[in-house]
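S.,

Sequence below, as promised.
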Amino acid sequence: MIAQACDLFHLCSDETHPQQSTFVFDCTGRRGERGSYRRVVPGAHVSTPLRGSQPSTEHYSKPVLLPSLQAFQVRILFLLGLPTNDANSTVQSLIELEHKKYGDTLQGDFIDTYNNLTHKGVMGYRWITQYCPHVRLVAKIDDDVFVDTFKLLHRFWPVLFVAKSRAIFCNVWHNNTMTILREGKWKVNEENLQHFKYFPWNYCSGMAVFITGDLIPFLYRAAFRTPFFWIDDVYLFGMLPDVVGNVTYYDIGFSKNMSLNNEEALKCMKTQGSTCPVVVTSSNLQLFPEMWDVTYEIHRSLWKFEATKVE
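The prediction came back faster than expected:
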């Protein structure tokens, strides 16, 4: 369907194709990680000072947590572009200091704006293709989203993700159901996708998307022959998979395990504990610490068991 996109969908322009972005800096070479992550690489699209805003991240250093994650070899990667309005490079200097301290950031040579999220996503595909070729699962998570990582890995991994290939797990918007908006935040110019009322591809709500690792190199290579489209959810999880072909979507969406109502999700976690079906929910900087604390209490007994077993 994309092969004739220049003529059919009028998507071609002078815009640089997203695969052409280069790294300003990345985290390769730190502790010799290259190619060593075989399970999960969560990638967060970051535009806020997320790490420093969560006082409860001190829980990550507790010994009881580590055995719970060691079996999955989880690696976190924060994706950034270049800061805007940074004439004195003040923000960039802070970013570089943080990178030196934590070594988990990947920065591209494009301005970090909402309209450049497609560049950021393809940059992530490129990095994983080059440095994590054996990864089993990639989780793309927005910076205003909370994921119960431990429920995801201990409960969903064995049931949903194992033995799957060329697969995407997300809230799926099916082809010819989502209206193409011609005004507002997600405006598509009239010259693009002419004569179409709905997007002609399946694609994902981008708040949290889980992709089997074998698919990532194909998605990255597809960006070389897919015209740029600024709405990243459509491009990264719709247009590119369509070019690749033979991709299976699994809907784990808003009617099942994802929520857009963070207060209702937190209430579910508090009242239903481990039986709460919510794995992914929208959140904010104020709610993150409380959500983490509740999650920690829910799963603490499991972590203690595993810590005893591993030791």
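Residues 288-310 form the longest helix (23 residues).

Coffee later?
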